[in-house]
């Protein structure tokens, strides 16, 4: 469907512009919304839901070794609330399972 | 209350160190793949520094043919994958809107999942005023940005040796990071139902719809249900 050649750098620039616009637009729009209690509740609930929606399909496609590591990450987070520690141990355990099992 | 001003910028950077290590690896993975897909070194570096969205960049490589670049397809795919940044940027408004606009818009150019989540988690633990939280955000954002951008050229050169970066367990690194951040965001039992619905919706839409629409749809459905339950 392309009739003429587009310089790759132009594509990179246009990609950058689109993503920049998306990054700024959310904040801009939130400033122009009437922040009713309902919208406020929604914005508070949104962050966790974004991450769940990101990670749920990934988890589903993971294998059982990765599921064990996932449980380890969750357990460490619940026990220690230490993001650093949970991620390092989780990735290390995944690597270990990959080698051993 | 005249205390010496705590430097939240440094604190943000420090809190982002682990994630930045992952950031280097993501940048590296993109660099390797860029090499494998014969994207030029310059394009890959400029892309990481300006587009700065790992997944979208990697997906765009699939369309990166030397003579025949489908502009619209690439832009559309990129935008859909990055649509979550739109939602993330919205959720920062209530905690950062007192920061001068030009500062916040410059800072938001560096918005990615990791620094965004760290900032909201920080805000939940400590009631920081908007400018301090912005310093924290900027510290985390810059730490991750530098890591990702530095990782790209390293990966590009490693592309001579390595051809399949998935061997480094990047797939699980993403899962580990998102899970840890997610648990850090847990506010209590009220989150259970919206999270479950967000996850289930995302899984279903991931199955039926190509691209990354499932993130947007799952997040919206889950959070609307959550808001509705909180009010009614």
Give a written overview of the molecule.
The complex is a heterodimer of chains A (101) and B (232). The model of chain A has no long low-confidence stretch (mean pLDDT 90). Chain A has helices at residues 8-32, 37-61, 64-80, 83-100. In chain A, α3 (64-80) packs antiparallel against α4 (83-100). Chain A has 4 helices and no strands. The longest helix of chain A is centred in the N-terminal third of the chain and has 25 residues, at 8-32. Chain A is mainly alpha-helical and 101 residues long. In chain A, 38% of the residues are buried. Chain B is mainly α. Helix content of chain B is 75%, strand content 0%. In chain B, α2 (17-36) packs parallel to α4 and α3 packs antiparallel against α8. The longest helix of chain B is centred in the middle third of the chain and has 29 residues, at 130-158. The termini of chain B are far apart. Chains A and B meet through α1, α2, α3 and α4 of A and α2, α3, α5, α6 and α7 of B.
Short overview:
With 101 residues, chain A is mostly helical.
Q: Layout of SSEs?
A:
The complex is a heterodimer of chains A (101) and B (232).
Chain A: H1 8-32, H2 37-61, H3 64-80, H4 83-100
Chain B: H1 8-15, H2 17-36, H3 41-50, H4 54-61, H5 71-96, H6 101-108, H7 113-125, H8 130-158, H9 170-185, H10 192-208, H11 213-231
